[in-house]
Design the sequence.
């Protein structure tokens, strides 16, 4: 049974990568600072797959906190990133509509929470989108050399060219891509770079998550050829996991390719 380690496995996309991996028979480990299971705004479907994932604590900035989990891994995924510097917007973006007033009160009126003790680094583009990823890639490479194996390393990057997307975000993603593609040894690391545009969860509706409403606006922009169509996290996860078993699959996967039907 192949082993996959998903960094950010309880996040919006990460949880669907874990789910797809379980469905395809992989042994799945998630690493996040909290080590918590994911939250589901819509309880529509039973989530039995959650019990099949090993939900572990670890911090990307501290390789000692996760290196032992990488031993014996066939696949590693980095699904962590920030679109805006600072953390508060994530809670707003992922909260159910009904709890938005409380989240806005907490973030805007009371001020942000005390820093998480695991939060060792400021939440800048360079730290989260670039440095955390290159550090993980180098650690994966070290482990692969040690175990004389090749490990696939997937980095969730982003599509360039959508209006309102900060240039600093894209630059930090491209800097990480460059390191992963050009500074890792192909004998030990097989890089996969995914560049989705806007994503939303297909199980969540209008009242569950503001992303549903935003996806409709993005879809309208797509009709005018301005931006790529919004993608469901389930679609992106399926595209990613379907490539893991193919030793030839490597390099950049564009937003257009991610939108295509998944080959089983
Ligand atoms: N959302 C979109 O529409 C979109 C579009 C294009 C590209 N992307 C990219 O897709 C990726 C995933 O995005 P997302 O929206 O799924 O993110 P998300 O929901 O914010 O999830 C991020 C995850 O990272 C974990 N995390 C944060 N800091 C960590 C650290 N230092 N060490 C270990 N784990 C850490 C978080 O869990 P803890 O807080 O428990 O640590 C969380 O599980 C990102 O790279 C993002 O830039 C997203």
Sequence:
């Amino acid at each position: 049974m192949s082993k996959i380690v998903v960094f950010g496995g309880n996040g919006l996309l990460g949880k669907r990568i874990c789910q797809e991996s379980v469905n395809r028979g992989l042994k799945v480990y998630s690493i996040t600072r909290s080590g918590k299971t994911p939250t589901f705004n819509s309880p529509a479907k039973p989530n039995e797959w959650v019990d099949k994932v090993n939900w572990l604590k670890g911090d990307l900035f501290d390789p000692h906190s996760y290196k032992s989990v990488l031993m014996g891994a066939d696949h590693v995924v980095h699904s962590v990133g920030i679109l805006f510097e600072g953390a508060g917007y994530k809670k707003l973006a992922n909260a159910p509509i009904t709890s938005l007033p409380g989240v806005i009160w907490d973030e805007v009126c009371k001020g942000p929470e005390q820093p998480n003790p695991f939060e060792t680094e400021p939440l800048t583009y360079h730290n989260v989108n670039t440095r955390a990823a290159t550090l993980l890639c180098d650690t994966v490479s070290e482990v692969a050399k040690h175990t004389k194996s090749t490990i696939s390393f997937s980095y969730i990057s982003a599509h360039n060219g959508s209006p309102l997307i900060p240039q600093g975000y894209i630059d930090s993603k491209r800097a990480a891509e460059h390191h992963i593609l050009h500074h890792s040894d192909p004998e030990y690391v097989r890089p996969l770079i995914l560049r989705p545009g806007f994503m939303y969860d297909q199980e969540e509706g209008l009242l569950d998550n503001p992303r549903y409403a935003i996806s409709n606006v993005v879809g309208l922009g797509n009709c005018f050829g301005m931006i790529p169509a919004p993608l469901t996290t389930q679609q992106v996860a399926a595209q990613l996991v379907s490539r893991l078993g193919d030793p030839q699959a490597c390099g950049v996967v564009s937003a257009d390719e991610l939108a295509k039907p998944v080959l089983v």
Notes: The chain has a mean pLDDT of 89. The longest strand covers residues 27-32. The pocket of NAP is lined by residues 7-8, 10-14, 31-34, 36, 58-61, 79-81, 90, 132, 156, 158, 196, 198-199 (CB under 6 Å).
